Predict the structure.
Amino acid sequence: MTIPDRAAASVTEEQARREIARLDARAAKQRVVWQGRDVVWRRFGDGPPLVLIHGGHGSWLHWIRNIEVLAQRHTLWLPDLPGFGDSDELDLAAHALDRMQHLTDALAGSLDSLVGEDTQIDLAGFSFGGLAAAHLAALRGGIRRMALLGPAGHGGTRRQPVAMADWRLPDRDAMRAALRHNLAALMLHHPLVDDALAITVHEQCCIQTRFRSKAISRSASLKSTLDRYSYPLLLIWGEHDVTGTPEELVQQLAEGHPGRDWCVVPNAGHWVQYERSDDINRLLLSWFGDGAAVAAMPVG
């Protein structure tokens, strides 16, 4: 089932787990060995290649409400980044200063083994995955168009009014309550009520995360990385994204760059492609189609 906007609250935990399993069963799963470590990719659909990169404390499931729509026009390639999801950790110290470079190398090398190093791709990244996508574009080249959703690494003002809760608790009910709190504090704008799909995805992603991305996400490396990328770029933020202030980020990242478009999606938080999946699916299909993304929805 493809769950439309604002309908996820009616899904039970059992239904959420069945939906995750159903979608996973549809994927062609590829394990690529990179310097002795497995990097796991999932492929969906048929058409021009589009790579979707998840955020921190995430996995391919960050795109759960976008995959089936986008796969109608694209061959989707979704990695679990090294140290996330089903992929192995990199052989690095937890706080190694060069771990982003190693992650980018593994991402580029494993992707090229699947699609070919000379194959042109489209690319989208969410949050920490937006920063990873920018690094991949700068390293690999061969990017036709790129879209970054709530990208990390801008170093700008955060506006998160509620502290995160410790979710690493022995009691599962207490753990899920903490995860629900954190989703409301960081990821989503609308009250969760009982969005079992979001909580189940978040639980699975958090449990499987081993890569320490917070310091990288809080860095100010995005602008300089994007300055090494010269092709069409779409920047997307939710109106209420607490990881940054869209108006400030437009000035920092988009203004003065004719090839960069942007939009702010109303009534949405950080995890914009989940919370406003219908709108984001239209935007991305348009952007990676004829390039008229902002015209597809009157926002921004």
The chain has one domain: 8-296. The mean pLDDT is 93.
